[in-house]
Specification:
192 residues, alpha/beta, Rossmann fold, 4-stranded mixed beta sheet, 9 strands, 43% helix, binds guanosine-5'-monophosphate
């Protein structure tokens, strides 16, 4: 049988701060390793292939779907696919580590349903939709059209919060990071 570690899932609308929290936990908890997703979008800013994402073509992505290489995938934005490769989870478990995900809300729930008690699904809740919009606009990395699409998706995603194991309020980043560390450390200690 293949090795099975645990899965820590962080989901939220983009701009809620989940990426910052995930990076903090990766620094603080050495047993965790980041699940690098595959995506068909272009790298942003200083993002690097095989570190932030596996940046692949749409053709390659569709081929991998056909070969059932993904545990989950979503067309997160129209024409842009994101997905978790089975091989990525196994790669991390084989090293004796637990996997941490920064993933969209539907993808997060999908993984939770699949891995059940082996997974902890945390929804990062921004203070309000207004704050979220401000953060997304402030990033300055997306076109007006892409921003509008992210706003619509964010509004819809906030309704999914109750389906997660835990709702982590991110009103103040430092507090949210500290709370996340306690939650994850406790979950990793638990026998399943
Ligand atoms: P971004 O383009 O801002 O990096 O990501 C857009 C959204 O896609 C974010 O909510 C991010 O968490 C999500 N995402 C990243 N990787 C995956 C994945 O493997 N599967 C799914 N379903 N969503 C992902």
């Amino acid at each position: 049988m293949s090795t099975q570690g645990k899965l820590i899932i962080f989901s939220a609308p983009s701009g809620a701060g989940k990426t910052t929290i995930v990076r903090h936990l990766l620094k603080e908890i050495p047993d965790l390793e980041f699940s690098i997703s595959a995506t068909t979008r272009q790298p942003r800013g200083d993002e690097r292939d095989e570190k932030d994402y596996y940046f692949i073509s749409k053709e390659d992505f569709l081929h991998r779907i056909a070969k059932k290489q993904f545990v989950e995938f979503e067309e997160v934005y129209s024409g842009t696919f994101y997905g978790t490769l089975r091989s990525e989870i196994q790669r991390i478990w084989d090293k004796g580590k637990h996997v941490i995900f920064d993933i969209d809300v539907e993808g997060g729930l999908h993984l939770k349903r699949k891995y059940e008690e082996h997974a902890l699904a945390i929804f990062v809740q921004p203070p309000s939709l207004e704050v979220l919009k401000k953060r997304l606009t402030g990033r300055g990395t997306d076109s007006a059209e892409k921003l509008a699409e992210r706003f619509v998706k964010a509004e819809k995603e906030l309704n999914y919060a109750p389906q997660f194991d835990i709702i982590l309020k991110n009103h103040e980043l430092e507090t949210a990071c500290a709370e996340a560390k306690v939650l994850v450390t406790d979950f990793l200690k638990k026998d399943i």
